[in-house]
Amino acid sequence: MNRREFLKTVGVGAVATAAVTTGCKRPATTWAEGFEPGEVPVDKMTYRTGTHGERVSLLGYGCMRLPVIQDSDLPEQERDLDQEQINRLTDYAIAHGVNLFDTAPRYCRARSEKAMGIALSRHPRTEYMIDTKMSNMSAETATREGSMQMFRQSLERLQTDYVDFYMLHCVGLPMRDKAGRTIDAMSAFKARFEENGILEWLMAQREKGVIRNLGFSYHGDVNVFDYALSLHDKVHWDQVLIQHNYINWRHAASLAEDGNGDANSEYLYNQLAERDIPVFVMEPLLGGQLANLPQFATDELKRRAPQKSLASWSFRFSANQPRVLTVLSGMTYMEHLQDNIRTYSPHEPLTAEEESMLMDIATRYVEFPLVPCTGCQYCMPCPYGLDIPGIFAHYNKMVNEARTAVAPGEDASEAEKRAYRRARREYLNGFDRAVPRERQADHCIGCGVCVADCPQRINIPKQMRKIERV
Hints:
By secondary structure, this protein is an alpha/beta fold. Helix content is 41%, strand content 11%.
């Protein structure tokens, strides 16, 4: 039964009444869920040195989820960035040993680079390193001139005359041509970086010192990852950015909806380690999912370390492999930053028993019907107004809390049917508080515009239909 049918059956008033039976919105002044306050060391950050000689903080600041101004009626994705808070977070990170800041032209709807340029330029250039990317993922920007202009614009926005690390962005994803047709991932890689000569141009910029280290970030078709690595003798990749956490280590491939998604990070890491290429890690929390775990996992981790955050376990795992140079985290709140600094000041490697425990949790976790959305917002804005990341985030929260309702069979008792109607009301009411009604899943028309842009390769219209029926 979909939302419209259900509301017609039970009445809108019953749904409104259910508001008192469910949780309330997180106040802006409270600590972010999954993180706990405590002492934050100033001078104990763990650093690692790559084969290129760069000494990098194990915690890198990911600038894809920068804070936005809260006193606004606009949807989260459309609000202005909070430059004052970004400056404050940047200052705190540098003061506590974080020296790498990772951004890209696409982040925060093309506003991240400029915001970080403002924040970082207030510090001596020797105190921080910048990582940005070539996000030439459209037919217009994938031209030679379009790609070169993107690079120059990044330098301008970041207020610098060189970047420490530069990445070919989202290697392994398809792209759309000027007619809106999808180009497969391998053809997209060649069009974006080889056929236009831009890869050789970037290598020349490295020779000039405008780029100090050249690499790529990977999502998607593992054949493209393998192809890019086959160019190593020619390009000499200085770093590669992969999605890595204790779920992706052995389960990324099996979670792909189309059977051809990201390879397991165990494979990716080993391929890079074999070539002695430093590894950058993204999504250590899988878009925040590993800081908000199902109850069985929360109970196990809290039993072992009551004072440690759930997130700290995933950060420890993501840094457990010696070739990992830095773990990037998109830290929107000060408590995120403080908690992660504590975890890596200094880093405490996992024991074999702890690692085995996380592997057991991962095996159980992947049985939950979660949507593997990391909240990157590449799918936004939706032409029909849906809050795609918001819908997925709330649905996953309901699944983790076992608050989704399963319709009873025809032979169910009256008590079971009443329990279902009550649970269904609470589920729908929770959605209404988390996502405006006009931006919810039942407004998806299945146009598929968002699918090609999703780094996780989620069949977004299919997931919307599933969520709308829950």
